[in-house]
Structures are given as C-alpha cells and as structure tokens.
Amino acid sequence: MIMRIYVIRHGETMVNANNRLQGRIDSGLTKDGIKQAEQVGRYFWDKEVDLIISFPLERCKQTAKAISNNLIEIIYDDRLLGRNHGEFTGVPKESINFDEYWDYNKNVQYEKAESVVDLFSRVEALLVHLKKKYDNKTLILVTHSGLIRVLYYYFAGIPDDGILSEIDIDNCNIFKYDL
C-alpha cells in the first residue's frame, strides 16, 4: 500500500518577505501569499486528494483553506509545527550561520532553538503515525520550511557532510512523496 503525501509550505508572510526566521510567530499571509496559495489550489483541481492536514497557525490555515476551496476536508495537527527557532526567531537569516544551523552531524545544541536531530526525530514519528492512520490515501500537508526541509532529507537521505541547508523552499512550493 502506498500513501502519497504532497507537502506545501504556507504562502508568503511579511516576516518571510523581510527574509527573517519566522518560526512560531503567528501571522497571516500577504496579498502575494494569498495569490500563491490560490495558485497551488488550482494545481490540485484535477488530482484526487483525501485530506488536507495543516498546522493551526494562521498562515498555514489560510493556505490550506485556499487549496481546499471548500472541496477537500481540512484537519489541524500540532505535530506539523515547524522548527522552534528559539533565540533566532525574528532575526534576519543572513545574521546566522545557516549551514551550521542545519548541520545534522554537528547537531548544535542552542540555548532555546530546537536541534536538527530533535526535529528529525519529531518528523519521523509524525510519518509513522500518518502511515498507520492514512495508508493508501493521498494527503496534503501544509506546514513550514523547517519541517519540509527535514522531510526532503528524510526521503532523499542525509548528505555525508550532514548539511541540510542546500535545498531552497520557497513559499507554496510543492513536494511529493510516496510512503
């Protein structure tokens, strides 16, 4: 049995537009973010989708609703929580060493920010749960770039150098996986 998962990053927010780490700051979509979400929704018009599972922050909820267009059921799940950026929340991305921040092998333990290995473990547990509950279904997960980054490397494999920052995850990017 195969479960198909489409994973989508929420639409653009003002924090994203300013190239800052957003993390768990709750904010809505910009006008461009709404357009991005609506465009992604059109992508799914001819696809069979059983369920949308979204993280319950406003930017994810707005994105999920635009994709659903009142045609696909949406449920909210706290386990789709993105990486806790802790002390880096709201800071410009260029002010931190992004490669080190996303280095699985180093797994730096910050004062407040969630470690890469902890996030990876959380994502693995989520996948096990989804596979048990929704096997042979097609799901859309609406979530955050950090969680999407870990999913990407879960399926592609962790590179030998451990650096998980090589992939770009723009707002409303779609990733597709079979599990």
State Rg. Answer: 16 Å
Label the structural class. alpha/beta
Determine the CATH topology.
Answer: Rossmann fold
Question: How much helical structure, as a percent, in the residues?
Answer: 25-40%
Q: Regions with pLDDT < 50 over 5+ consecutive residues?
A: none
Strand order of the largest sheet: 3-2-4-1-5
Topology:
Layout: E1 4-9, H1 14-17, H2 31-43, E2 51-54, H3 58-68, E3 74-76, H4 98-101, H5 116-134, E4 138-143, H6 145-156, E5 174-178
Parallel strand pairs: 1-4, 2-3, 2-4
Antiparallel strand pairs: 1-5
Helix pairs in contact: 2-3, 5-6
Structure description:
This protein has a single domain (about 5-179), classed as Rossmann fold, CATH 3.40.50. About 35% of the residues lie in helices and about 15% in strands. It has helices at about 15, 30-45, 60-70, 100, 115-135, 145-155; strands at about 5-10, 50-55, 75, 140-145, 175-179. The longest helix has 19 residues, at about 115-135. The protein starts with a strand and ends with a strand. The mean pLDDT is about 95.
Describe this structure in a few short sentences.
This protein is an alpha/beta fold and 179 residues long.
Search tags:
alpha/beta; 6 helices; single chain; 5-stranded mixed sheet; 179 residues; Rossmann fold
